[in-house]
Design brief:
The protein is mostly helical. Among the domains are: 39 residues, no CATH class; 102 residues, no CATH class. The chain is 61% helix and 3% strand. A hairpin with a 2-residue loop joins strand 1 and strand 2. The longest helix has 66 residues. The chain is rod-shaped. The N and C termini lie far apart (132 Å).
Length: 293
Amino acid sequence: MPPKATKVEDLREQCRSTGLDTTGNKADLVKRLKNQKKQKNREELSPGDQDDLKYDAILVTKSKTGSEEEMKKGELKVQKVRGEPFVCNRWGLDLAGLEECVGVLEEKTSALEERASAHKLRQCALKDEVNLLWDDVFTLTLCVPEYSRIRNRFISTFKRDKLNNATESDIDSIQEGNIMAHEGDAAVDALLYEGLNGRRDPSAFKELYGMHPADVVKIRHKETIKILNIHAGVRADSHKTGTDEFYRRFAEFVQLFEGSGCDESYLTAGSQYADVARAYWSILDCQRYQDCA
């Protein structure tokens, strides 16, 4: 753009004020002022905006950083490039490293999932250990009352036979111990068949309790154990004979119970295992011995 002044004297005055040579004609003075203005514009540009003698800068490029609608979300900004104003949207540039960030997050997520899986396996193993401990506690709980009666019988019998000072309580303990010694105990007796030194006559156990000891040892239902014990007491009684109806009802109960997968919820499951529950109650209501009313 040429200087506004067109008079020679005004041009010389402009040159003089800016430190330029004032000699020459009008054309020389105008050229001198134009050159000075161009030099001033170059000095105002940043080093990155300076003209490259070999290469020109790429001002526009195409990159898959987002959809067209996403690219429209950013605000337009005015930015100077080589001293000239450009309108641009920098929001798309912020998405340039998005793929790499997603990859890093996916790796972290995978690592967390592996750790969670390991914790879950450990939790399952601990749960199995707890269940085994509860099984032991249950078995011990069943053993203690019955075993304590047998031991009370031993001491009370000693007082009666050797010390001749047995009390009424001792007589009761002896009677209770005698009953326990001749009654069945499926939960405890099933344990006699475990281990290398365990019993090897499961058929005898099944004659008493109606089920294999390996199956009985898994039962945690007191009512079911009670029925098995009742049958063993009747079956082993050497003074009384069980009724055919009692044995028939017991066999029906065992068949239905095993047919349900030994589901121990038959007394509370409603209609799902109503036949097992019916067979259970029928045994309790049945006449057990032939010589009993």
